[in-house]
Protein: ABC-2 type transport system ATP-binding protein
Amino acid sequence: MEHAIQISGLKKSYGKTEVLKGLSFHVEKGEIFGILGVNGAGKTTVLECIEGFRKYEHGKITINGKAGIQLQSASLPAYIKPMEAIRLFTKWKNTAIDTSLLAALGINELKSKKYMELSTGQKRRLHLAIALTGNPDILFLDEPTAGLDIEGRISLHNQIRQLKEQGTTIILASHDMTEVETLCDRIAILNSGNIAFIGTTDELASKIGKKYQIKVLTESGEDNYTADNIGDTMLAILENYRSKSINVLDIKVNRGTLEQHFVDIAKGDFL
Ligand SMILES: Nc1ncnc2c1ncn2[C@@H]1O[C@H](COP(=O)(O)OP(=O)(O)OP(=O)(O)O)[C@@H](O)[C@H]1O
Structure:
């Protein structure tokens, strides 16, 4: 089956720094696909290369469908009113105003305000409405809920899920594992310009599910370990301290959360 987005061997450098080192992946039609990584991992760069806003040195990107792109904050003129912005983009995309979409996103309530007077959440809703004018097949979202309160987050998540139900393919960048876990069908985790993991969050959880984190407090300080096999590892750790005549004062064992494991993978400490 034809994919919504197909990327092979994508390389991008800023000056001498290679930020993307040959990424290959695809986004399936109708899925919500998350690109994860810590700050500076290259998430925005990947999105911008796919969107066509960034030149790249190597690789091939194929998009099958009409794209809708959520603007970055502060990207509209300060004095423009929400409905003026909607009319501008509707005209530019040569399409009609979708009044039910505007009602669903609460844009009508913002009529009297200027762009600079909107809150972060209101701006995000307006940016989403603009991205959705012309009914795109593929929606690009960069940190869609950054700066939103819990209510705004839940509301935007629900809107994103509804769009998926209507058949829209969604690709989003985020550094929030919890957000991605609740929303995305599949994720790619970027690390040092490469994909460190790609698959479903369930696959990620089962891959790392047996990982334990062990914190040992001794008279010389605190040591941290991770282990798949808790029994053998504990014996080896304790034997090591005993052979060095170091007194163990306390031991704590945790099953790591997906979030902690994401940080390990994203920073390169995984396995
Ligand atoms: N226009 C640019 N010129 C030079 N370097 C850039 C430019 N844009 C991004 N970079 C660098 O490329 C790297 C990746 O940036 P990018 O914005 O793609 O990361 P990100 O994962 O989206 O980060 P964040 O989570 O902070 O938004 C960073 O080291 C950044 O400093």
User: Anything to note?
Assistant: The chain has a mean pLDDT of 88. Residues 14, 19, 37, 39-45, 175 surround adenosine-5'-triphosphate (CB under 6 Å).
